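We emphasize that the prediction below concerns an isolated chain of 369 residues; any contacts that depend on oligomerization or on bound cofactors are therefore not represented. The input was used exactly as deposited, without trimming of termini.
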Amino acid sequence: MVDLKTQYEKIREEMDRAILETVASIKFINGPAVKKFQSELEEYLGGGHVVPCANGTDALQVSMMALGLKPGDEVIVPAFTYVATAEVIALLGLTPVMVDVDPDTFNTTAALVEAAITPRTRAIVPVHLFGQSADMEPLLELARRHNLFVIEDNAQAIGAEYTFSDGSRRKTGMMGHVGCTSFFPSKNLGCYGDGGAMMTREADLAQRLRMVANHGQERLYYHDMVGVNSRLDSIQAAVLSVKLAYLDEYNAARQRAAAYYDAAFADIQQLKTPFRQHNSTHVFHQYTLVMRDGDRDALRQHLAAQNIPAGVYYPVPLYKQKAFAHYWAGGELPVTEMLCRSVISLPMHSELNSAIQDQIINAIKTFFK
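Result of the prediction step, given as a C-alpha cell string:
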C-alpha cells in the first residue's frame, strides 16, 4: 500500500546525514532537532504554534485535556473514522457522540453535527478523512453559535488547504481551536517510528498543550496540572525535517496518481471514484473507491490473488465496536453503514508510477468484465 523503501532511497544521503548528526549530538529528547522541526512546520503551516508529541492519539488526548473538557461532557465525532478519534474521548471519561457522514466526501457536516448537539456538548472533532478537509466554514460558524471547541483530526490530510467563502485559505489543522496530526510512517508526512503534533493559532492554548504533554509542568518539578508524558524524540524530528521539505512534492505525486486512477475507472459504472470538494485540495492519504454494485470483498480477494494489496478503511462503524456499544442507543447511520460495506482503498503513495498503476488497473478491469 505504501512504498517507503523507494522513497527513502531517493533521499538516502540527506536522511542518513540528518540521523547521524542527531545521534552524534547525544541530545535525544527535546534536542535541537525537535526545535528545528517545530519551527519549520510552523512556517509551513503559515504561522501559529506547533507542539510536537509522541503520536497522533496522544495529540487528541492532550488537546482535550488542555481545553479543560470534563467527564460527562459530550464530544461529537464521525462514526466513519479510525478508533483513535473516539478512543481518547472515552478514555478521559467524556462521552463520544457519533454522527453520520457525507456520502461524497466521507466527512461529517455542520447539518449532521447540529442535529446531535445537546446542552452537554462541549466539542466537535471533524476528521479530514483520506486527505480532504471537512467543510470547515459552516462547522466553525456552528461551533461559534453554540460556544463549542473545534479539534481537527488532521492525521490524514497534512498539507491540504481549505478555501473560505471570502477567498482566504488555511492549511488543515489551523482552522479550529487545535489541530492534531500523526507522523506514523505511512502518513503523507511520516517518520520512521511514532510521532505526532498539535497545532494552534492561540499562544495561551499552545502553552497549555506543552504543559499537559510534559507532566503538567512549565518548569522542572513544578506541576500546575495533571499531565502526561508525550514527546517527539530528536531522531524522529530529524527524519521529519528532511521529509517536510518534500511534502508538497509527495502530495503532488499522490494527486497525479489519483488522476491516473480516475481516468482509468471512469467507464466502470460499478465504481465511484473519490469526490473532490470544491473548497478543499485533496492530498490522497488514501485513494478510496466505493463499489456501487458487486462484492467488495470478492474484489479484494481477486486483487490479493495477483499480489496486489487493497485496504478497507473502515469495515465496522465506531458505534458497532464492542468498546463503544454502551454509548450507542440509536439506530444505524445509513451512509456510514453503506461505506463500511462498500469502500476499498488501492495502493497510494508518492512512488507510484504508471507501470505499477496499470497492473492494478488491469486487474480491476478484469474483475468487472
